[in-house]
Amino acid sequence: MTALSDRSVPSSAPGPGVGGDTGRGRYPQDVAAHRRDAPRFCPGCAAALSIADGGHGIVTEYWTGADRVFVCFCGACGWSGDVVLAARVIGHEPEH
C-alpha cells in the first residue's frame, strides 16, 4: 500500500553515512510526525492497530531514502505489511 505525503523528509531522517545520535536517538525529534502519520487502522480488516485505540497491533516507522515506511501488524486478522509515505508515486494504468 502506498500513500502520498506532502511532507519532506524529517530533518532527523538518517542520511548517507550519518550515524544515529546514541545519546538521545532520532525518534524524539519526530514523535509528533509519527503520531500524526502512523496508520491507525488495519488496511486488511479496518480494526484499530493502536492499543490506545483498543487495538491489538503494532506500527513501527523507519526511513528508506526519502520515503517513510510504517511496518504494521494487526492482531485482529493477522495482516502484516508496509505502509509507505512517499513524496511521489508513479502508477500504471492499462490502455482503454
Outline the structure in words.
The structure is a single chain. 7% of the residues lie in helices and 25% in strands. It has one helix and four strands, in the order βαβββ. It has a four-stranded mixed β-sheet, with no helix packed on it. β2 and β3 form a beta hairpin. The two termini are 24 Å apart.
List keywords for this structure.
7% helix, flat, single chain, 96 residues, 1 helix, mainly beta
Helix and strand string, N-terminal first?
Answer: EHEEE
What is the rounded distance between the termini? Answer: 24 Å
Low-confidence stretches: none
Helix content: under 10%
Give the strand order of the largest sheet, numbering strands 1, 2, ... along the chain: 1-4-3-2
- Report the principal-axis shape: flat
Mind summarizing the main beta sheet? 4 strands, mixed
Radius of gyration: 15 Å
The total count of helices amounts to 1
Query: Beta-strand level of the residues, as a percent range?
Result: 25-35%
What is the number of E strands? 4
pLDDT averaged over residues: 78
Which class of secondary structure composition applies to the elements?
Answer: mainly beta
